[in-house]
Amino acid sequence: MDSRTRRHRRDLGRQLAKAELVASQHSDSVKMAAERGVNLIIGSDPIFPMEESIREFTSLARRVPDNWLVLRAGTINPARMLGLEDEIGTLAVGKQADIVASPGNPIDRMQHIENVTFVMKGGVIVRND
Description:
Layout: H1 3-35, H2 50-61, H3 67-73, H4 76-81, E1 99-101, E2 118-121, E3 124-128
Antiparallel strand pairs: 1-2, 2-3
Helix pairs in contact: 2-3
């Protein structure tokens, strides 16, 4: 093995160790924020597949004490942050909403959202298993 390869392996090991430390600290910070009543937010980026957003929900559920907090982090909290809570963020007459449903209750177990069986977008059913 040449010196360049050895250096690369050493540097990679340091980067992975730092990533593990940061992930642990991030997890602690999120838990502390939730315990202190901070409105957490789950967002989405159009360049990532929807499965990434689902992972954010399940990941957050491992860190906060209440799945209601997790659901609000992906619905009403972002709407409030954007000043759009009168238009989006909850299911109510006159609001815009896409609906996603699964056979299980995510309040009981957040992993239920990984099994989506119904999707309505803009009032049109696009999936109904």
